[in-house]
What does this fold into?
Amino acid sequence: MLPNDLPADIRDRAARVKLAVFDVDGVLTDGKLFFAADGHEIKAFHVLDGLGFKRLLANGIEVAVITARMSHVVTERMAALGVAHVYQDQQDKRACLDELLHALKLDASEVAYTGDDLPDLAPMQKVGLAIAVANAHPWVRERAHWRTRLTGGNGAAREVCDLLLGAQGRAESELAAFLR
It folds into this structure.
């Protein structure tokens, strides 16, 4: 989606973002939980989302994940992408977000939060740009400033990354770098 295709309000909100926060299950994954015979959890992440995270970080936008579950797979995937702000087993996501904002010395208006279910509502209500993935719970979708066209685990996070880069005038330079 090009920045000019966005409502001015969304474009303005996205232009101010210095930190993009994502839920994991249902946002970075399709929300299904798989367990191996030995009890280990298996998750599938979309490669498009991973490159989106790397491009945000390369352009000075911090990335964080806040999830209520604990998963070694999340730790490994975020480390591979260079995401330093990984908060797992967080039952109070808003309190976690408050601590992160304090640590990074950011105002809530400089944050985008992408979620899909009820535990994401409190942090979404606090931030400057609240985003719901396409298959989010209806109560979450109706309270978001913007909704992705793609579903969680299927490139929705990349859509958010592209929105932020485009609104901040970085889409053309990003594209040009890959056309060399």
User: Anything to note?
Assistant: The first strand starts at residue 19 and ends at 22. The longest helix spans residues 47-58.
